[in-house]
Amino acid sequence: MMGGAFRLPLPSGERVGVRGFDVRSRISTAEPPHPALSPRGRGVIALALALSACAAQPVGPAAAVPEASGGWRAVASAPDRLRLRGWRDAWVKALGQARAAGHGGDIAAEGPLVDPDSAIAPVALPAGEYRCRTIKLGTPPGGALPWVSYPAFRCRIDPAGEGGFAFAKLSGSQRPVGRIFPDTARRMIFLGTLQLGDEQGTLRYGHDQERDMAGIVERIGERRWRIAFPSPHFESLTDIVELVPAS
User: Fold this and answer.
1) DSSP string, 174-232
2) Is 221:112 a contact under the CB 8 Å cutoff?
3) C-alpha span between 175 and 179 (Å, rounded)
4) d(Cα 179, Cα 64) in Å, to the nearest integer?
5) What pLDDT shows up at residue 39?
6) What is the C-alpha to C-alpha distance for residues 97 and 137, in angstroms, rounded to an integer?
7) What does each C-alpha distance from 50 to 27, 31, 44, 53 come to in angstroms?
8) For residues 55 and 21, what is the distance between their CA atoms, to the nearest angstrom?
9) Count H helices, E strands: the chain?
C-alpha cells in the first residue's frame, strides 16, 4: 500500500506497523510474558521478520524497474514501446496545437528544449542533483491547455548499474521515479512510474499501466538535458522535463 500504514493482526499486546519500508514493533508489559507463543503469534512474527528482511534490500527509484541484461526493450511494456516508437508524431502534433493556440513566442523562447531535433551526442549524463522544469505540450481530446510551463523542482540522478541511472523527481505533486537505460550515443531511455501527492512508496513498473512512464533522455546543450515523455496518460500529448545540474 502506497504511503499508508498496514496493520498486522497480532496477539493481544503486540503491534507491528509498516509504513513504506519501516518496520517497528511494540510489546506491552501490562501482562507477564507468555511461556510460549501460539501458532498464530509465531506466524505473525515470521511475517514481520520477512518484512524486515525486505526492508534491508536496496531501495530507491531504480527499484521501480528491474535490471535486464537485454536492456530497456526487455523491460518495457508493449504500450510503452508503442509510445516510444511514436514519439516524433506526438511531439510534432503537440507543437502544432501550441502554435495554433498562440504560443509561438513561447516555443521560440524555449529554443532547443522543445525542438524534437536538437539532441546532441554524447548523452554523457552526470550523476547528482538537478533542477527539473516541466513543459506540457498539446492536449488530448477534451483537454484544456496546449501549453503549460511549470517552475523548477528538485530531481536526482544516481548510478544504477549496467551503465544506467536511477532518476527521481524529489518535489512536486507529480513525481516520475525509475531507471534510465543506455540506448544510443544520442539518447537513453527512461522507464518508471508516477508518484502522486504525498505517496512515499515506489510503485513497481507494470503494476498500474496508467502510472507507467516511458521517456527519451537527451543532451541539448552544455550542462543541459531533457526527458521527453511521448503520449503521457494525463493532460498532454508530450511532456518535456528540462534537466540542469543544481551545481
Assistant:
1) EEEEEEEEE--SS-EEEEEEEEETT--S-PPTTS-GGGEEEEEEEEEETTEEEEEEES-
2) yes
3) 13
4) 7
5) 53
6) 8
7) 18, 27, 10, 5
8) 5
9) 4, 12
Note whether 247 and 128 are within 8 A (CB). Answer: yes
Tell whether omega for the bond before 66 is within 30 degrees of 0, i.e. cis.
Answer: no
Rounded Cα distance between 18 and 25, Å, is 9
Nearest C-alpha neighbor of 235 from the set 191, 208, 196: 196
| The amino acid at 204 | R
First to last CA, the chain: 36
What's the pTM?
A: 0.74
3-state helix, strand, coil in the chain (%, to 5): 25, 35, 40
Residue matched to cell numbers 527521481: 168
The cell for 97 is: 496545437
CB 62 within 8 A of CB 177: no
E-strand stretches of 13-83: 14-19, 22-27
CA angle 136, 150, 211 (to 5 degrees): 55
- Three-state SS at 244: strand
- How many CB atoms are located within 10 Å of the residue 141 CB? 4
Q: Could you report the average pLDDT of every consecutive run of 10 residues in the chain (247 residues)? A: 38 35 34 44 43 40 73 95 97 97 98 98 95 96 91 94 89 90 96 88 88 97 97 94 96
